[in-house]
Amino acid sequence: MEEDQERSCKRARHYTYLMPMGENEEERECYQKKLNECYEEKRKKFATRDAIAVDQVNEREKRKKRRIVAKKKSQSVPIESNEVTRRLKEYIVNEENGTEVKMVIQKTLYQTDLEKSQNRLNMPINQLQTLEFLREDEKRILDNEKEIEVGLLGPRLKMHEKSMMLRKWRMRSTYNYVLKTNWNNFVKENEKDLQKNSKIQVWSFRKKERLHFAIACLERDVDQQNDADHDDVDFQNDADVPPFFVFL
Predict the structure, then answer these.
(1) Whose CA is closest to 186, among 156, 229, 226?
(2) 88 and 200 share a domain?
(3) Which ranges of 77-215 would DSSP assign to H, the alpha helix?
(4) Which residue has the higher pLDDT, 90 or 240?
(5) Alpha-carbon dihedral sign for residues 169, 123, 198, 151
(6) Is there a contact between 241 and 225 (Cβ–Cβ < 8 Å)?
(7) 134 and 185 co-located in one domain
(8) Distance (Å, rounded) from C-alpha 227 to C-alpha 204?
(9) Kind and range of the H or E element at 11?
(10) What is the longest distance spanned by two Cα atoms in the chain?
(11) Residue 216, Cβ neighbours under 10 Å: how many?
(12) Rg of the chain's alpha carbons, rounded to an integer?
């Protein structure tokens, strides 16, 4: 880059010196001034280009560091396995005849996941435990910015009335998977389970080859759960269902 700048400036000097220098001192001063102006213009041009190139390199390095930090952060989260997750897998396999059961992501529910204006559950790619919950044809569909209709199993172990749509959202330097379209309905029906800052796991499984998801709520407020037990007659009639299940 510096060599290009030097060559360009030398050419500027060369072309200027080829011009007639004039027969008197005034003309020679005029030509020398033009030479200096040409050289300074070239110098500023290269300096600006170099500064832009440096900024671009720095920005790429910053994005790379952010991705590394985000990846390390997601990998440092201990994945929980307890009675909730055990019963979840048993129910999927034994009651729903589900296959290819996989834990997709463990995350915290943020306010944006519950906002009506958003109407989606966000699953960042750098927090996913696996990408193998998708088949190759499904990956191609999502890569082409199309959606996949997926099944939804509700909190009382009944299939949710409305299907969800799975979509891949491209971000500035990465991408996220989102469950959308009818997410608000699901949140409203399960507002006692889906609270801000709740820790959840999203699981995937197949039912007759169709992709489904299930959510296990890993943390609940005990007093809130006791209130829910008294208010929910259907739950009282099914003592074997753990109170902290929410299926998607």
Answers:
(1) 156
(2) yes
(3) 83-94, 111-114, 136-143, 183-189
(4) 90
(5) positive
(6) no
(7) yes
(8) 30
(9) helix 2-18
(10) 111
(11) 25
(12) 31
- Say which amino acid occupies 122: N
| Domain harbouring 211, CATH code | 2.40.330.10
pLDDT(223) > 70 = no
* Mean pLDDT, rounded, of the chain: 77
C-beta of residue 133 within 8 angstroms of C-beta of residue 211: yes
Which domain range does residue 195 map to? 83-236
Q: Are residues 28 and 120 in the same domain?
A: no
pTM, to two decimals: 0.60
Question: Which distant-in-sequence residues (6+ apart) come within 8 Å of 31 by Cβ?
Answer: 16, 19, 20, 21, 22
CA distance 170 to 176: 7
**102 contact partners, CB below 8 Å, separation of at least 6:** 129, 130, 132, 133, 203, 204, 205
Same-domain check for residues 180 and 131: yes
In a domain, 248, yes or no: no
CA distance 66 to 104: 22
| Mean pLDDT on 216-245 | 44
When mean pLDDT is compared over 53-57, 176-180, 198-202, the highest value belongs to 176-180
Give me the residue label for tokens 């939804």: 152
Tokens of 80: 């929980």
Cβ atoms within 10 Å, residue 212: 25
Give the number of other Cβ atoms within 10 Å of residue 119's Cβ. Answer: 15
**Helices and strands (H, E) in the chain, number of each type:** 8, 7
Note the pLDDT tens digit of each residue in 103-112: 999 999 999 9
